[in-house]
Amino acid sequence: MTHGWQYKLGIAAMAVMIAVVTGCSGTGSEKVTVKKPPVRETGGRVELERIDRQSDSYGLAWLSDSEIISTKAPKWMEGDLYVHSLVKEKDPDRKLGAAHALTVNPSPQQSYLFISNRMEASILNLADGKETPLDVSDGTYSILNGDVRGAWVEEKAYVFAAAYGLSVAGTNGKVTPILKMKDQQSVMKVEAVSDPSDPNRFTVYFLDSSDALYKLKVANGQFNRPAAEANPELVRKSIADFSISPDGTDLALVEETGNNKNTVYLIPAGKPGKETKLAEGRLARQMSWSPDGSRLAYSLFNLERGGSGLYVMDTMTGHMTLVSLYPNLQSLLVWSPDGNQLMMSQENPEMNLTTTDTKLMTEIYRFK
């Protein structure tokens, strides 16, 4: 599955070179209305205020609503991390004090940073600057799946992909395996959501390399040792991407519904219910909820019917706004803590391909 997924993205990237004027962004005036929105209300649409672009920088995460964490080197170089101010543009970027990072993921309240590359990982306490290395070795080799971004469970723990499984890291650095997958399967994406009725329980959603989406219920257990309560439960097959809403009530899914056809759905996460069809295209990726769950962003590539680009939906009304004509299918869409800004970073934005002369660009979409 992994090679097939990469092949599809390669085909999409080449088509984008031919069909899309790269870097051209919408004004927010174009929108698509969902046929059957979750709630039918008048008004209530996403309005784009402006787009800020930064050259020679690749944004990885938000440190606050006014600062981003970025690198000045291509991702594969795992370079130094910098803090860039969005309100004091003339101030020089300052080094974060961590280097060789492929993934940077702040906790919801920006108390901690999970930092990893393909071999090592650590948790940085932003209050005192103390960095705690995580033991991600089986005694000989690293078991870290560094290409997969993990997920925070509030400010308590971090769920990350390991070799053929999942593990949980506490903020004290203790690592506990919670799942060993069968048949040499690997995790392609992972997200987590707390149980609102029990602070000692949470649910992990993960996509495996056979396109199957599962959920795994986890209990903290005695002595702060998280453990799976049962075997993973299959949610749906033929899934290309997904994202769970912050409150855990809704799942946004990209389902492979035909040859070169993806369909974006919104479904209830807890129990069977009415599904909402949001969009169709050749490829859809990078599902991302705003922290308060009021907006859902994703990228869509649809060469035959048009409509390719970056979309943001108001989840209360179902109104969808095209904010960029460039459907970057490989870059994470990262929301600011207040949910009013969305960051998308690119390598070689002219072609969306890796070259020896790598160019970096970060775009921040600011909403009214």
TrEMBL record:
SUPFAM superfamilies named among the record's database cross-references: DPP6 N-terminal domain-like
Alphabetical list of InterPro entries matching this protein: 6-blade_b-propeller_TolB-like, WD40
Pfam families: PD40 (PF07676)
Family of this protein: Belongs to the TolB family.
Protein's recorded name: Uncharacterized protein
Biological source species: Paenibacillus dokdonensis
Lineage: Bacteria, Bacillati, Bacillota, Bacilli, Bacillales
